[in-house]
Please model this.
Amino acid sequence: MRRLVIGDIHSGLKALRQVLERARVTTDDHLVFLGDYVDSWSEAFETVDFLIGLDKTHNCTFIRGNHDELCYGWMRTNEENPTWLAHGGVATKMSYLNVEREKWDAHFTFYEGLQNTYLDENNRLYLHAGYTNLKGIEYEYFEKLFYWDRTLWELAKAMDPTLKPGNENFPKRLTHYHEVFIGHTPLSKKGHAEPQKGANVWNVDTGAAFMGALTILDVETKEFWQSDPVHTLYPGENGRN
Model:
C-alpha cells in the first residue's frame, strides 16, 4: 500500500482527475487530502461531489482546510463573508447556486466529517496548515490554527538545515512527529513549484489556486506527480490570479 498525500485542490477537478491518473492511483492506496477542496476555479460543487464518490471506492482521509470551513459557513448561514468572496469564494458560491439545494445534503455531511489532523502509524502528522503548541497538537488551544496557522511553515523554512533533533535549539513543536505534511501556504503563485521540505515539515501546496499545478506525493519514497498548471485546464477563468 502506498500512502499518497494530495495538496490543495481549490476546485480544480480537471487537475485532480489528471494527477490521480498520472500517479496510477488504485484502491490499494491510502489517499490523504490536505484540505482546501474549494475556492478558485469553477468546479467547487463538482470537486466535492467527486471526492464523496471517490471515498466510496478508495481509502480516503479528508483534512479540513480554511477554505472548506469558510464555504461551509456560508452554506449553513447564507451570510456572505467579504474575505471569503475575495479569495475564491465567488466562484464557489456560483458553483453551488447552479445546483439544486437538495444536492447540498451530502456535502454538508462531507464538510462536517472533515478531520483537523491525522496521525499515521509511523508517527507522520497530516494537517492543512500548522499548530503552535510546543507540546504538539493534543495541547493546541485553538483548533482553528490547524487550518489557519502559517507559522509552522515559516519556522521550518527559516531553520538552519544543519540543526538536528536533539539539539537544544531544535524547535520543540517539531520533535513530536517523524514528519509533518501540510498545504495552505502556496510555494509559488506564479509558476512551477515542487514539494519542499523544511526541517521535518513537507509543504505540498504547489499553487493550484494560482498558476501552479496540483501535486500528489508518496510519503514514503517522496516520489511525486503533478497535473498540468491548473489555470491551463480552465481557460477563460482567473482563479485567484
